[in-house]
Amino acid sequence: MNDTVEPLAAASVADPSAVAAPLFAWWHANARDLPWRFGRTTPWGVLVSEVMSQQTQMSRVVPYWRAWMDVWPDAAALAAASPAEVITAWGRLGYPRRALRLQECARVVAGECADELPRSYDGLTALPGIGDYTASAVMSFAFGMRIAVIDTNIRRVLSRVFTGVESLGGSAKPAERDLANRVLPADAGESVTWNQAVMELGALVCTAKSPRCDVCPVSGLCMFLAAGRPGLGERRTRPRQRFQGTDRQVRGIVLDALRRLPAGGGDGGGDVGAAGTMPGVPSLPRAQARQLWADRAQLDACIASLDDDGLIEILPDGSLRLPRA
DNA sequence: CTCCAGGAAC
DNA sequence: GTTCCCGGAG
To answer: Where is the HhH-GPD domain (predicted)?
Structure first.
C-alpha cells in the first residue's frame, strides 16, 4: 500500500483552495445571521461576543449580547458600571468570572488605550480575560487581519479534512498550529471568511460526535471521511465536566440568590433595621444564605471563593451582596 | 445523558 | 499539562 513516497510534506495535505471554493459557497448560503457578524458592530462589540461565546452556545448568547451592547456600547461605558450591575446583566450565561474580566478589560481599554482596542495580537492578549483564541478572533473578525484562529471547532475540522484523524485533547499542538497557518488563504479578506466558515462548519455540520457528512460541502475532499471516519467520537477534546453537587453549582446558586434580591435596598425578609447598610445594592443575611445549600462546609468554601474572585462582598455582619465597586 | 466560539491559576 | 470555573437546550 505504501509503494509511493510522498515527495514533500505539503503533498500529504489537500489543496486548501480546492476546499475553500465549496466551503465559501456553503458559508454564503448557510452562515447564521448573528448580530455581530457582517460588519454590523464595532471591534469592541466583536470582543464582547467572543467572550460571551466562550463555553456557551451562540443561541443563548444573542439576547444577552443585544441587551449588553444596548446598555454598554463601548469599553468606556462598561468601565463606568458597577460590578454588581455587570454581574446581574451577565445573568445565566455561566462562568461569571468572564463578566468581571470583561469589565477589567474595559477599564484597561478605556483608561490606557483611549477607549480603542489594541490592533495587535500581543496587545490584545495582554488584556484581562483575552487569551489566544479571543485575540486571534478579534484580529480576524474585527480588524480583518490575516491570522489563523484556533478553537476547538477549527481544530476538529482541519484535522479531519486535511489529516484524516480526530484532533486530540489538551491544548493545540504545534502541528495543529502549523496546519492552520499552512491552509489559511494568503489573501487577508479570504482568510477572515475561511476562519468563520471553518468554524461555522464545525458548529453546524462537522460536529464532534455526529458529523453530517451527507450535507458537508467538502465531503469529497475530506481525508477523515475517505478513511472511514476512524475513531469518531472516541475522544473528547476535554474531560467531561459534571455539574451536580460541585462547587460550580453551589457558586451559581449563591450568585443567583444575590442577583434576585430586589434592587434598592430590600433584603428579602431579613433584618431591615441594619443601620449601616447602604442603599443601591441589597444584601442577603447570612442566615438566609445558609439555607441555599445543605453542606455547610462546602457552602462556606464557595462563599469564600466567590469573595476571592471579587464576585461578591462579605459585609462585617456576614451578609452577602454583589460588589459595588 | 450529551453537547458547547476558553482562560487562568496551580 | 491538569484543574477549576457555569448553565440551558436537546
So the answer is: 52-204
By annotation, the residues of A acting in catalysis are: 50
The 10s digit of each residue's pLDDT in A277-309 is: 456 789 999 999 999 999 999 999 999 999 999
Judged by C1' against the alpha carbon of A60, the nearest nucleotide is: C8
Phi, psi of A274, rounded to the nearest 5 degrees: -60, 110
**CATH, residue A168:** 1.10.1670.10
pLDDT (0 to 100) of residue A272: 41
- The CATH number that applies at residue A120 is 1.10.340.30
3-state secondary structure of A208: coil
Query: Residues A65-108: pLDDT tens digits?
Result: 999 999 999 999 999 999 999 999 999 999 999 999 999 999 99
pLDDT, tens only, A172-183: 899 999 999 999
| Pair A156, A18 in one domain | yes
Domain count, chain A: 3
Assess whether A208 (CB) lies less than 7 A from strand B. Answer: yes
Same domain, yes or no, for A254 and A302? yes
DSSP A92: T
Nucleotides of C under 7 A from a protein CB: 1-9
Give the three cell numbers for residue A138: 478579534
Mean pLDDT value of segment A250-268: 81
pLDDT at A243 over 50: yes
Per-position DSSP letters for A225-261, written without gaps between them: HHTT-TTTTTS-SS-----TTSHHHHHHHHHHHHHHS
**A16 CA, C5 C1': Å apart:** 37
Which nucleotide is nearest, taking the CA of residue A153 and each C1'?
B5
pLDDT higher than 70, residue A213: yes
* A133 in the same domain as A47: yes
- Using the CA of A236, give the nucleotide whose C1' is nearest: B3
CA distances to A89, A314, A320 from A324, rounded to whole Å, are: 14, 12, 12
